[in-house]
């Protein structure tokens, strides 16, 4: 029997959008079984903290067709879930700040035999499509925030 190829994708996955779906569908093509790891709030240091709690982000990612299982990330050591899952491939997002070489080195140091690949980006398909959680937050603030159209509403 041919062994199953296990793939891991990871990210914050706050306020899901089609870019996330593209990433996970693309990552799934690298193997037979896709596991997604959801970053914990204290590890999201390179941008504003997520709006939604980790459990809600995990449940939404788990509901996507490309994903076999979604897991809460480890709060301190990001290699703990990797050691437990034992993937054959880790697929990084197209714009993730992680360096493939550094991750491959860290995996080798822990004796984990796993390739590191990078997913493709999704091009916007519709006019006005938002493919970034940060952009969605910005639009909410712009359209519903206190300064919209110069109308301060109830907030004075
Ligand atoms: C191989 C790998 C495993 C990761 N595992 C975890 C984890 O267990 N817990 C966690 O909080 N974050 C984990 N992360 C996510 C990082 O902490 C970081 O926040 C993530 O790159 C966020 O990416 P984003 O900006 O694309 O959402 C992992 C990242 C990589 C590359
Ligand atoms: N437009 C997109 N095309 C392909 N992959 C994407 C796209 N947007 C996000 N991803 C991927 O989804 C994963 C999780 O992304 P992340 O949680 O950072 O969302 P985001 O929309 O990029 O958020 P932010 O705008 O705050 O950076 C990352 O690996 C990222 O590369
Ligand atoms: Co991002």
TrEMBL record:
This protein's UniProt keywords: ATP-binding, FAD, Flavoprotein, FMN, Nucleotide-binding, Nucleotidyltransferase, Transferase
Cofactor(s) for this UniProt protein: a divalent metal cation
Gene name for this UniProt entry: ribL
NCBIfam families linked to this entry: cyt_tran_rel (TIGR00125)
PANTHER family, alphabetized: FAD SYNTHASE (PTHR43793)
CDD domains with a match to the protein in the record: cytidylyltransferase
Entry protein name: FAD synthase
Catalysed conversion reaction: FMN + ATP + H(+) = FAD + diphosphate
GO BP terms, alphabetized: FAD biosynthetic process; FMN metabolic process
Entry-linked InterPro entries: Archaeal_FAD_synthase, Cyt_trans-like, FAD_synth_RibL, Rossmann-like_a/b/a_fold
Associated pathway: Cofactor biosynthesis; FAD biosynthesis; FAD from FMN: step 1/1
Keyword DNA-binding among UniProt keywords: no
